[in-house]
């Protein structure tokens, strides 16, 4: 599994930043999610799974490798 980020769908709620602060930040310009580093090509840490579950817009999702 891997994380998929569709920034176009982000509504800037910040749930992902609270759930997985090591992975996600928000843009100062528009509040949209910004990955702190390239998202891993495979493997989803537990905190990232929580972030996916709590994302209200579907901007974060899981996909098969
Ligand atoms: S939780 Fe979803 S909608 Fe909220 S900032 Fe993160 S990616 Fe955007």
List the helices and strands and how they pair.
Layout: E1 2-5, H1 15-19, E2 24-26, E3 33-35, H2 46-54, E4 60-63
Antiparallel strand pairs: 1-4, 2-3
Walk me through the structure.
- This protein has 65 residues and is of the alpha+beta class.
- Helices cover 22% and strands 22% of the residues.
- The chain has helices at 15-19, 46-54; strands at 2-5, 24-26, 33-35, 60-63.
- The strands form 2 sheets. The protein has a two-stranded antiparallel ribbon with strand order 1-4.
- A hairpin with a 6-residue loop joins β2 (24-26) and β3 (33-35).
- The radius of gyration is 11 Å and the shape is globular.
- The relative contact order is 0.38.
- The model has no long low-confidence stretch (mean pLDDT 95).
- The chain binds iron/sulfur cluster.
- Iron/sulfur cluster is lined by residues 10-16, 26, 33, 55-57, 59-60.
């Amino acid at each position: 599994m891997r994380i998929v980020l569709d920034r176009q769908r982000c509504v800037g709620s910040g749930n992902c930043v609270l759930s997985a602060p090591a992975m996600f930040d928000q843009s100062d310009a528009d509040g949209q999610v910004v990955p702190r580093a390239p998202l891993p090509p495979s493997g989803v840490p537990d905190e990232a799974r929580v972030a996916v579950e709590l994302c209200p817009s579907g901007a974060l999702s899981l996909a098969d490798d």
